[in-house]
Amino acid sequence: MIRIGQGYDSHRFEDGRRLVLGGVEFPGERGLKGHSDADVLVHAVIDALLGAAGLGDIGGHFPDTDPRFEGADSMALLKSVMEELETDGWKVGNIDATIICERPKIAPRKAEMIASLEAVLKCPVSIKGKTNEKMDDIGAGLGIAAMCAALIER
Ligand code: MG
User: Fold this and answer.
1) Which domains does the chain possess?
2) Which residues have beta carbons under 5 A from ligand 1 (an ion)?
3) Whether this model's pTM surpasses 0.90
């Protein structure tokens, strides 16, 4: 059986936070506000996987009211979601994700983010970086959004 899922997430920038995307840190860039490390890309990937597997969503698994997830490493959350999928017999076929932001520039760090995600997901990962052409809040540089499609099979 093959199933598809899609995920979306967004976080606003906040001073005094580090920026982490796909498990890769961006030193010198403004970070994102969030209960966890606010890795918006990984959050979109998690929601795509959970949606594909019919297992709900990230908020249900890792509530932002739960102190256990304060400052959580989102890659660790992704690993636990992968274990859940594997327990149900699912393998990930591929992941296709888009990051939307005016900054940072995605292209120079794309290979690192892909390697980081592929190490956990054990499947081909594609990441595209887009700006929002200065339109709306993302375009005004208030935050970062990410979208993801995931194919799973068993
Ligand atoms: Mg999030």
Assistant:
1) 2-153 (3.30.1330.50)
2) 9, 43
3) yes
